């Protein structure tokens, strides 16, 4: 295994420098041997984003010339808007800063607003370790919730589902509102929890009935919830054109859409999930260093030791590169104006403005 990793590291180092002149290749190694990388994570410790980020941080330096040390800095705030703004506007643009954001950050950047100060198309995108092909966003609830199926959850004569959401406003807050507006989900949100682990704890204490969350996150941090004899059930899956193979009896939001307009809204809201967990460097990183970072990111995703550790953490690795991230951003930007206006209103509702 170690020999395989060494061979991969040597291979990627060669690939990273072949595209540049010999002097530049030497300069890459000299630069990174003296300059550690600061890895900004737009969420707090313990959640799935933090798990992915720290995994990459432990392996990325192996695949960069000079083998720099990579240190993680958590910078939560406004569903990682704080981190995205920092990386875009203040982080050094010399190849010593990278970041990981919420998948909604490119969409929010395209929509703009008084507190949005970045253009997502100008980041130096590295890629995403997961592409969501093997994932789903699910509505998971306690089995003692007042409704037992998605059909009952859409009935107004039954009590609403009470779902937990974050204080800074994120996808956990957005998806229930999208489901309310497109499939008729009868829902009440309790927002204000500081992070994902605290929402899980609130569900276990019975403060709220459930939440919307990625299936991969459940597998990683609460795998016991997915056992048939657990005290939890999944009512609907989001960000899926078809049902997830592991949830064949759970309908997708697209199946339940009230009409074609609702289905179009769902499909737009699902587009950011293509990005899953995007990684980027600031704009205008020197080209040789940008190429080295992008190559090292992809090399880590193929590394046997990295994959072995990801397996132990129960997280999905199905990477996409920076070019695919940009394609997804372009698809979002090309959405009909009326659908983008809906998303603006949604953000205003779940984040108190924007």
Architecture overview:
- The protein is α/β, with parallel strands linked by helices and 354 residues long.
- Helix content is 45%, strand content 16%.
- The protein contains 15 helices and 11 strands.
- It has helices spanning 2-18, 22-34, 48-59, 81-89, 105-111, 150-153, 171-183, 196-205, 215-221, 253-256, 260-270, 287-302, 304-313, 322-333, 337-351, and strands at 37-41, 70-74, 97-100, 124-128, 137-142, 161-166, 187-193, 210-214, 232-238, 279-281, 320-321.
- It has a 6-stranded mixed beta sheet, with helices on both faces. Strands 8-5-9 form a 3-stranded antiparallel beta sheet.
- Helix 1 runs antiparallel to helix 12 (287-302) and helix 3 packs antiparallel against helix 13.
- The longest helix has 17 residues, at 2-18.
- The termini are far apart.
- The model has no long low-confidence stretch (mean pLDDT 89).
Q: How many runs of DSSP E, i.e. beta strands?
A: 11
* H/I helix tally: 15
What is the overall silhouette? globular
Gyration radius (Cα, Å) is 21 Å
What is the ordering of alpha helices and beta strands? HHEHEHEHEEHEHEHEHEHHEHHEHH
Distance between the termini: 49 Å
Task: Give a quick summary of the entry.
By secondary structure, the chain is α/β, with parallel strands linked by helices. The protein has 15 helices and eleven strands.
Summarize the SSE layout with pairings:
Elements: H1 2-18, H2 22-34, E1 37-41, H3 48-59, E2 70-74, H4 81-89, E3 97-100, H5 105-111, E4 124-128, E5 137-142, H6 150-153, E6 161-166, H7 171-183, E7 187-193, H8 196-205, E8 210-214, H9 215-221, E9 232-238, H10 253-256, H11 260-270, E10 279-281, H12 287-302, H13 304-313, E11 320-321, H14 322-333, H15 337-351
Parallel strand pairs: 1-2, 1-3, 6-7
Antiparallel strand pairs: 3-10, 4-10, 4-11, 5-8, 5-9
Helix pairs in contact: 1-12, 3-13, 7-11, 11-15
């Amino acid at each position: 295994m170690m020999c395989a990793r060494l061979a991969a590291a040597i291979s990627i180092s060669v690939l990273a420098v072949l595209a540049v002149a010999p002097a530049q290749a030497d300069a890459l190694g000299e630069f990174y041997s003296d300059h550690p990388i600061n890895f900004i994570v737009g969420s707090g410790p313990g959640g799935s984003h933090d798990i992915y980020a720290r995994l990459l941080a432990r392996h990325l330096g192996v695949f960069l010339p000079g083998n720099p040390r990579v240190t993680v800095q958590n910078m939560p705030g406004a569903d990682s808007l704080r981190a995205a703004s920092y990386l875009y506007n203040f982080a050094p643009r010399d190849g010593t800063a990278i970041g990981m954001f919420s998948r909604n950050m490119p969409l929010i950047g395209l929509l703009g607003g008084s507190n949005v100060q970045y253009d997502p198309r100008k980041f130096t995108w590295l890629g995403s370790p997961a592409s969501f092909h093997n994932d789903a966003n699910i509505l998971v609830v306690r089995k003692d919730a007042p409704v037992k199926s998605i059909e009952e959850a859409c009935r107004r004569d039954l009590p609403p589902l009470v779902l937990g959401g974050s204080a800074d406003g994120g996808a956990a807050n957005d998806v229930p509102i999208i489901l309310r507006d497109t499939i008729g989900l009868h829902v009440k949100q309790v927002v204000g929890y500081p992070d994902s682990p605290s929402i899980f704890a609130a569900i276990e204490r019975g403060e709220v009935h459930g939440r919307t969350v990625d299936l991969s996150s459940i597998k990683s941090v609460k795998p016991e919830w997915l056992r048939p004899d657990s005290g939890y059930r999944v009512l609907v899956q989001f960000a899926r054109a078809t049902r997830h193979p592991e949830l064949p009896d759970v309908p997708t939001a697209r199946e339940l859409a009230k009409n074609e307009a609702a289905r179009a809204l769902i499909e737009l809201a699902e587009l950011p999930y293509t990005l899953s967990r995007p990684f980027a460097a600031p704009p205008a990183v020197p080209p040789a260093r940008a190429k080295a970072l992008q190559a090292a990111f992809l090399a880590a995703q193929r590394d046997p030791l990295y994959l072995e550790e990801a397996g132990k953490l129960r997280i999905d690795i199905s990477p996409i590169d920076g070019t695919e991230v940009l394609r997804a951003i372009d698809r979002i930007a090309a959405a009909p104006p009326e659908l983008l206006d809906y998303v603006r209103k949604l953000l205003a509702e779940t984040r108190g403005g924007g």
